[in-house]
Design a protein that fits this description.
256 residues, alpha+beta, five-stranded antiparallel sheet, four-stranded antiparallel sheet, 30% helix
Length: 256
């Protein structure tokens, strides 16, 4: 009843006001509430969305924040490494740049192996210590070694290993200071392969942080064909195979 009375009184006042004005307006238009432009729902949508977008998430423990921070650091480091790898792969080297980088590692590419080449020889009593990258190998004629992946060379390419640190034979030994300039070791690329998988596991206790990764190192297989820079003495057998020395048992006198 109270609502009806209020509506009736409002209608009376409205009709009195409308009669004073020249433009006639119906009572239905007066009584119908019009939305306020300042607080309309469409106008509130941007502020509501901005409030939701700027809302912060508060974690219940510090471990979540630390894990997120560490995860972001790991992802940034991984992205940087991937960018560097892709930049190295996409880079185009000139022949001069290839020679300079190969010489810095310790080898020189001669070209592909031909069918007419007779590079493989019989065993010779000499050895050499060569450096390839940051690794050193003791090799002799016919040996096979695995190194880190060598750039600018393919399978069946002939190489010269320039960084020879030491040469040895049954008659003499030559030591470099630190490299022998007149010495060289010839090799042939047999294959490019992958090493066995290595598992890298990282953990931080009480931080809910665990990361597991796998890595397979790229390798290059080299076959040593010749060693230059030292005199090699021949093994004389006189047509008979060498026999190993046999130690005779000693006679022990029996006690009387």
């Amino acid at each position: 009843m109270a609502h009806r009375r209020c509506l009736q009184s409002l209608a009376r006042h409205a009709t009195a006001l409308l009669l004073k004005k020249a433009t006639p307006i119906s009572t239905f238009e007066v009584l119908t509430p019009k939305p306020n432009r300042a607080i309309t729902i469409p106008d509130l949508e941007p502020s509501w969305w901005t409030f939701r977008s700027h809302s912060r998430h508060f974690s219940s423990s510090k471990s979540d924040d630390s894990e997120n921070e560490v995860g972001m650091e790991d992802s940034s480091d991984g992205e940087a490494e991937n960018d560097e790898a892709t930049s190295d792969l996409d880079r185009h080297y000139s022949p001069e740049e290839k020679e300079v980088e190969a010489a810095a590692i310790g080898y020189k590419v001669l070209g592909p192996l031909q069918r007419s080449d007779r590079v493989f020889k019989e065993y010779e009593p000499a050895f050499a210590v060569v450096q390839i990258g940051s690794h050193q190998f003791k090799v002799s004629n016919g040996d096979c070694i695995f190194t880190e992946r060598l750039k600018f060379c393919e399978v069946n390419d002939k190489l010269i290993l320039n960084k020879v640190l030491l040469l040895g034979s049954p008659t003499q030994t030559i030591i470099g200071r630190p490299i022998l300039p007149d010495a060289a070791v010839h090799a042939v690329v047999e294959e490019h392969a992958l090493d066995a998988k290595v598992i890298i596991f990282k953990k931080k206790r009480r931080k809910n942080y665990r990361r597991t990764k796998g890595h397979r190192q790229e390798l290059t297989k080299l076959r040593i064909t010749d060693i230059e820079g030292i005199e090699k003495s021949e093994i004389k057998t006189n047509g008979k195979p060498l026999k190993a020395a046999v130690k005779k048992p000693e006679k022990i006198a029996a006690p009387a």
